[in-house]
């Protein structure tokens, strides 16, 4: 029997998370994508804490008009600004089982343009 989309994503996610782990010096940039919104957070896996997070539900991003991909770019840019203010430059990218295209790629590219290195 074929896998559902969600089962396939969870398999890919487990395969990625075996390798990718965040520390306080180099946190993991985790991306979650729902049908309408996109969320990104920097996670320290050793301490089990979220260092900072940004989503398309934040007031300044919600006020902006545009497509979901454009808002994903704004989320990436806002995340990079917050990370720079917190003194974080190097991160490890965790696409969370999603394919690297569309909104996930837009967020990653905008975060790189904002100054994050991964």
Strand order, largest beta sheet:
3-2-1-4
Radius of gyration: 14 Å
What average pLDDT do the residues reach?
96
Largest sheet: 4 strands, mixed
Order of helices and strands: HEEEHHEH
Tell me what portion of residues adopts beta-strand conformation. Answer: 15-25%
- CATH architecture type: 2-Layer Sandwich
> What is the first-to-last residue Cα distance?
37 Å
Strand pairing plus helix content: what structural class? alpha+beta
> Can you identify the CATH class?
Alpha Beta
Count the helices. How many?
A: 4
Number of domains: 1
- Percent of residues in helical segments? 25-40%
Spans of 5+ residues with little confidence (pLDDT < 50)? none
User: How many β strands by DSSP?
Assistant: 4
Shape: globular
Report the CATH topology name. Answer: Nucleotidyltransferase, domain 5
Set out the fold topology.
Blueprint: H1 5-17, E1 28-33, E2 38-44, E3 49-55, H2 59-63, H3 68-85, E4 92-94, H4 103-113
Parallel strand pairs: 1-4
Antiparallel strand pairs: 1-2, 2-3
Helix pairs in contact: 3-4
Explain how this protein is built.
GO terms for molecular function: 5S rRNA binding; structural constituent of ribosome. It comes from Mangrovibacterium diazotrophicum. Keywords: Ribonucleoprotein, Ribosomal protein, RNA-binding, rRNA-binding. This is one of the proteins that bind and probably mediate the attachment of the 5S RNA into the large ribosomal subunit, where it forms part of the central protuberance. The structure is a single chain. The chain has one domain: Nucleotidyltransferase, domain 5, CATH 3.30.420.100. Helices cover 40% and strands 19% of the residues. The chain has helices at 5-17, 59-63, 68-85, 103-113; strands spanning 28-33, 38-44, 49-55, 92-94. A four-stranded mixed β-sheet has the order 3-2-1-4. A hairpin with a 4-residue loop joins strand 2 and strand 3 (49-55). Helix 3 packs parallel to helix 4 (103-113).
């Amino acid at each position: 029997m074929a896998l559902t989309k969600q089962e396939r994503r969870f398999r890919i996610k487990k395969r990625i998370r075996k390798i990718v782990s965040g520390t306080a010096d180099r946190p993991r940039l985790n991306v979650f994508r729902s049908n309408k919104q996109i969320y990104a957070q920097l996670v320290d896996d050793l301490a089990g804490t979220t260092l900072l997070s940004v989503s398309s539900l934040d007031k300044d991003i919600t006020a902006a008009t545009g497509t979901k991909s454009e808002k994903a770019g704004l989320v990436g840019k806002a995340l990079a600004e917050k990370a720079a203010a917190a003194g974080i430059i190097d991160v490890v990218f965790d696409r969370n089982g999603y394919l690297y295209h569309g909104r996930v790629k837009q967020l990653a590219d905008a975060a790189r343009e904002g100054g994050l290195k991964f």
